[in-house]
Amino acid sequence: MLIYSTIVLGTQAPSSAARMEEHAHTDFDYAGFGQRLSEAISPEKPNAFSIRTGVPQATLSKYLRGAGTAPRLDIAAHLARAAGVTLEWLCWGQGDGPQDAHLIKVPRYAVELAAGDGRWNEARQWVEDVPFTPEFFRKTLNRSSASGLSILEARGDSMFPTIHDGAMVLVDEGQQRIADGIFAFVLDGDARLKRFRRSMSGLTIISDNPAYPAEEIDSSQLSALQIIGQVLWVSQAL
User: Fold this and answer.
1) Domain ranges (residues) in the chain
2) Which residues of 50-62 are buried (b: 16+ CB within 10 A; e: fewer)?
3) Does an H or E element contain 231, and which?
4) Which of 4, 139, 199, 217 is deepest in the core (most CB within 10 A)?
5) What is the homologous superfamily of the domain 22-92 according to CATH?
6) Mapping DSSP to helix (H, G, I), strand (E, B) and coil, where does residue 17 land?
7) Which of 41-45, 65-69, 94-98 is predicted least confidently?
């Protein structure tokens, strides 16, 4: 949840009757701010950016339209960081603007997926946006956008040698259907990373490391399985 401060963009000091979410100032370049914000967000869709940053889509739309409202300083700083630009550039058009604007950005979250005994961090927090080239997305993932994707960290050795301890995994959170492949999921309160193989009786959960035995999940127990998403790609040091 974002906490709105009492500092606003503009030269006038806020009054006690100022609105909590936004202020209007005649000396602020709203249209320029909206144009720069749009440029910085692209090619990510505004609704995806809204979800990722926690800024309501209706509020974000006002900023993008330059509709006479300026975000508070803490919100503007949050938007600048998420968009990969400096606060000075976003607000005033000075300093460094978007770098490598053609790149596709995937959010990385501070959540550990256990490829071992299982650990669950309930409140994932955004860490950074990891850039990918459109060519990589097209050739490797057969995708053109980062919609529904996230990067999480694997911990443990049960998926070795496929996935090393500390590897970053690219997860498609839009893939919620159980199928054969490697999935991030929650079972019994633990966030885990394992290979799925469907069976006649339900589901077999497999560790690629032979030191870990497979687990059988009966079809009647599948409702207790919360799918986070399917792993599409792994980045790890050799």
Assistant:
1) 22-92, 104-235
2) bebbebeeeebeb
3) strand 226-235
4) 217
5) lambda repressor-like DNA-binding domains (1.10.260.40)
6) coil
7) 94-98
CA nearest 192: which of 217, 201, 200?
217
Classify domain 104-235 by CATH architecture. Ribbon (2.10)
Crossing angle of the two packed helices 46-53 and 57-65, in degrees rounded to 10: 120
**pTM of the complete model:** 0.58
CA distance 2 to 225: 30
User: Using an 8 Å Cβ cutoff, are 106 and 137 in contact?
Assistant: no
Strands 104-114 and 202-206, sheet pairing: unpaired
Dump pLDDT digits (tens) for 34-58: 989 998 888 888 999 999 899 999 9
Residues 165, 177, 197, CA angle at the centre, nearest 5°? 60
Nearest of 124, 198, 186, 194 to residue 157 by alpha carbon: 194
CB 226 within 8 A of CB 185: yes
